Amino acid sequence: MRLGLALGYWGRGPSADHVTLAREAERLGYDSVWTAESWGSDAFTPLTWIAAQTSRIKLGTAVAQMAARSPTTTAMHALTLDHLSGGRMLLGLGLSGPQVVEGWYGRPFPASPLTATREYVDVVRQVLRRAAPVALDGRFHPLPYPGPDGTGLGKALKPITHPLRADLPILLGAEGPKNVAQTTRIADGWLPLYWSPTRPQVYEASLAGLPQGFLVAPMARVKVCDDVAEGLLPVKVMLGFYIGGMGHAARNFHADLMARMGYEEEARRIQRLFLEGRREEAVLAVPDAFADEISLVGPRERIAERLELWRKGPVTDLLALAPDPHTLRVLADLNA
After folding, report:
1. C-alpha dihedral sign at 51, 296, 264, 114
2. What residues does the Luciferase-like domain cover (predicted)?
3. Degrees (nearest 5) of the Cα angle 228, 295, 194?
4. R_g over Cα of the chain
5. Distance (Å, rounded) from C-alpha 187 to C-alpha 138?
6. What is the mean pLDDT of residues 248-269?
């Protein structure tokens, strides 16, 4: 199982320690470093900054939001950074949800998310292969644009720049069972939002017949500390926000996933409290057991014991949300 460093997205401003952490991760032999975006900092610019100050570590987006860019634009970002970094790019994509897609990006959330994702990946792969002008008779991402409000003058084009790698890896952040199953067919890897090594049955059917070399790369908060409850608090804050605030009461993919993982009653309570403005109560309502099983938190010996569970499943890459160099070093040592 390889290790990656997950840096997420910025909060109120740039994180001063991200480059330092990325360079330390590279020194320790971590395989990859990952950035994200929501509705603030973007995923590609910080990754480019890190690329310029590292030499070996792979560079991933976990995730870049599909609604933020047309698929050809995303492919341009990926092929550009792949060239600049000497072939280190890993393109992780996610669809997000209706609240972000429509509220922030001003686009309709696709009526068929699976079809929209499949078309998006198809276009990105066409750009990277550069075998022919990019064209797709698609429902959501048709090229050239055929709409009645167009000029009709659109022309199928190849990228001017020759991509460094036609097989640049594409990973998808998928949550629903059908979406995960499709990911195993159209992508090179999967970026689970929550992964519990004690509940393999949650994704067992969707992951049946994984292709050889397919990446399974979940994120997990990792923190070496004496007080487990204190170490889990940032996990509970994250879960409270995602389950309560990242979606509508009637449509929240994160809450639905928590429910499928055996915590339906708790997920609905967190949602209700958060939407009522009782955010601190929503965080406290996150079960310690759920936060713990998707994390690696506690003294070194406890993390070492629980790390064995992660190695036994299909996980190929553990992307550690590890905010301090000491934790990075302990995890590298335990995984050696």
Report:
1. positive
2. 15-315
3. 145
4. 20
5. 18
6. 82
CA distance 283 to 234: 9
Give the pLDDT confidence of 286-332 residue by residue, as tens digits.
Answer: 999 999 999 999 999 999 999 999 999 999 999 999 989 999 999 99
Q: Tokens in use for 144? A: 């050239």
pLDDT at 262: 87
pLDDT tens-digit map of 88-141: 999 999 999 898 999 999 999 999 999 999 999 999 999 999 999 999 999 999
CA distance 189 to 61: 12
Q: For residue 24, give the amino acid letter.
A: E
Cis peptide before 144 (omega within 30 of 0): yes
Reported confidence tier of residue 248, pLDDT bands at 50, 70, 90 = low
Q: pTM for the whole thing?
A: 0.94
Which two structure tokens, joined as six digits, stand for 92?
């992780």
Which pLDDT value is given to residue 242?
83
